[in-house]
Amino acid sequence: MRIGIIGGGASGCYLAIRLKELKPSFDVTIIEKNDKLMKKIAVTGNGRCNYANLGDLKGKYNNDEFANKIINNLPPKQIVANFDKYGIHPTTIDNLVYPVSLSAQTVILMFEKRLQELGVKSCLNEEFLDYKKDNNGYSVKTNISTHVFDVLVFTSGGKAYPQLGTDGAVLDVLRQHGYEIETLSPSLSPIKTKENTKKVSGQRVKCHVSLFNGCELYYEEDGEVLFKDDGLSGIVTLNMSTKINSLEDKNKVKIVLDLARGYGTIKEDEYPQFVNPKVATYLKDNHLDIHKLGFSFKAFYDYNVAEVSHGGISINEVSDSLESKKEQKLYFAGEILDVDGMCGGYNLMFAFASAETVAKSIVR
Ligand SMILES: Cc1cc2nc3c(=O)[nH]c(=O)nc-3n(C[C@H](O)[C@H](O)[C@H](O)COP(=O)(O)OP(=O)(O)OC[C@H]3O[C@@H](n4cnc5c(N)ncnc54)[C@H](O)[C@@H]3O)c2cc1C
User: Fold this and answer.
1) What is the mean pLDDT of residues 164-192?
2) What is the C-alpha R_g of the chain?
3) Which helix (DSSP H) or strand (DSSP E) does residue 5 occupy?
4) Quick one: 109 and 36 in the same domain?
């Protein structure tokens, strides 16, 4: 059986490995437009690759029930055990799992070694352009040649970080083939605010962050916020962006920071006791409340700084085994699907678990 995988990132490479492990006679080819496989893995987790999370998975994804059902096919502990066998030994920091080397390069090297041992073919510098189904199977046109496969899997990611190959062009092709694509937008992205933050740009504050949808408290988290010239960043802000993506009317979104939670009433001249002097001066000069520093959502930052994209192939287009409901023997895995998670290893976990789901289905 000839299997074509479009996109040699996290889900594509893991899928290729699992297919050959489960059925060595399969002829598996990855088509990747970059000159190397897994370029994005290199930048994950600040170069450390946070590839799993051993904590509670509830409420971590947009399509949470769907995502958790897929993750049940390869639970986090199983990802860690499988990776350990490939030579990616784990270390865990507050439930977040990294390679013990704390280097994403370990993941890339060990995956490359396994792909080679198993005889997976990779066509690098080859860009998928379109496909056609006929009696021979799926005929795939690239910028270089035409390939024919019995089974086709799209693992070409979303639209975030186009500088590493994921520009969303494959989704445009799939739209033309009649697939429903949920509207794409940057997620795990810094947020532009209507308020000017230039005076405190570069400053970090530890705080309690509340996200309001109109008057309703929609989400809250403790963490560190980094002020930018025109908005907010830091992990807690990136998590807010995934929650904002789920809201229809973004004009009603307010973010409120409590910079001194649990300390009761604080006079303006006491602010430097709780936040660094630059932030204290900013609050004082603008008569802002240290417990209720409010911001109105203006926009997300661009795709080139967002860690994932929200939207993609609608989950209504696929079965539980991630096979297309429209076209037999055509599958999707990873970020190309309308699943995006919060910071903490959830997105790579979904990439690996969805690849496992597809591998087992093809073998069946
Ligand atoms: C800066 C950054 C940090 C991150 N950190 C983490 C983290 O620590 N933990 C975590 O869980 N997630 C993290 N993520 C998110 C995670 O990397 C992605 O969700 C994950 O890589 C998605 O896997 P994928 O296989 O679906 O797509 P990708 O890994 O994006 O791979 C898709 C591949 O398809 C290729 N491709 C696209 N179009 C074509 C085409 N036309 N023809 C051929 N090939 C094509 C691309 O070049 C790419 O190699 C991070 C993302 C970024 C950008």
Assistant:
1) 97
2) 22
3) strand 2-6
4) yes
CA-CA distance, 189 to 298, in Å (whole number)? Answer: 13
32 close to 126: Cβ distance less than 8 angstroms: yes
- Per the structure, the complete domain to which residue 260 belongs is given by 191-300
Query: SS3 for 54-68, per residue?
Result: CCCCCCCECCHHHHH
Roughly what angle, to the nearest 10 degrees, separates helices 64-71 and 346-363?
Answer: 60
Residue 261 identity: R
Q: What is the mean pLDDT of residues 87-96?
A: 97
Which domain CATH number covers 53?
3.50.50.60
pLDDT in tens, 24-49: 999 999 999 999 999 999 999 999 99
- Domain stop point among 285, 300, 315: 300
Instruction: Say yes or no: 131 and 13 in one domain.
Output: yes
CB burial of residue 343 (10 Å; 0-12, 13-18, 19+): buried
Q: How far is the CA of 85 from the centre of ligand 1 (A)?
A: 23
Does residue 307 have its Cβ closer than 6 Å to ligand 1? yes
The strand pairing partners of 323, in sequence order, are 331
Asked whether the CA dihedral 166, 169, 170, 171 is positive or negative, the reply is: positive
Q: Is the pLDDT of residue 135 over 90?
A: no
Which of 98, 176, 348 gets mutated to test ligand 1 (max ligand atoms within 8 A of its CB)? 348
Please tell me if the CB atom of residue 340 comes closer than 6 angstroms to any atom of ligand 1: no
The answer to whether residues 222 and 171 belong to one domain is no
- Last residue of some domain: 269, 300, 331? 300
Which tens digits make up the pLDDT trace of 67-78? 999 999 999 999
> Is the whole model's pTM more than 0.85, yes or no?
yes
- Ligand 1 pocket test target in 156, 338, 346 with most atoms within 8 Å of CB: 156
Query: Which residues does 7 contact at the CB level (< 8 Å), separation at least 6?
Result: 30, 31, 32, 128, 154, 155, 156, 157, 165, 170, 334, 336
